[in-house]
Amino acid sequence: MSADSQYLQSVLHGDIPLTRDMGLEVIDWQAQTLRLQLPLAANVNHKSTMFGGSLYCAAVLAGWGWLHLRLRELGIDDGHIVIQEGQISYPLPVTGAAVARCAAPDDKTWQRFLTMYQRRGRARLTLATTVS
């Protein structure tokens, strides 16, 4: 596990205790892509599949973690990341461990976010995450 991955897992487990109880682990942070893993055993529902709320949490945390690490890489540690809105669909049940992924937005979107943040001290960014 990379130093960045260890750092993020420590932040998640320390600042958001639910992540520890869910068994959430940071798999890796490379090429501006974050991957988190969620075990089935700690997140199983009455149908012996992954609980939808746990899947949603993993998706949100992948986006939150991505932004946290990316800002940290740029030396920006004075902001607060707030999830304003989320949307998820559940096309199929998850029957094993789940992996949540968040990759970088396109360069134009990222630059617009950074410019706005530097100008106003706050900005909005839409990130797409997947869970499989």
Automatic annotation (TrEMBL):
One Pfam family, short name: YiiD_C
InterPro entries, alphabetized: HotDog_dom_sf, YiiD_C
Alphabetical list of SUPFAM superfamilies matching this protein: Thioesterase/thiol ester dehydrase-isomerase
Highest taxon of source: Bacteria
Record-annotated Thioesterase putative domain positions: 6-131
Protein name according to UniProt: YiiD C-terminal domain-containing protein
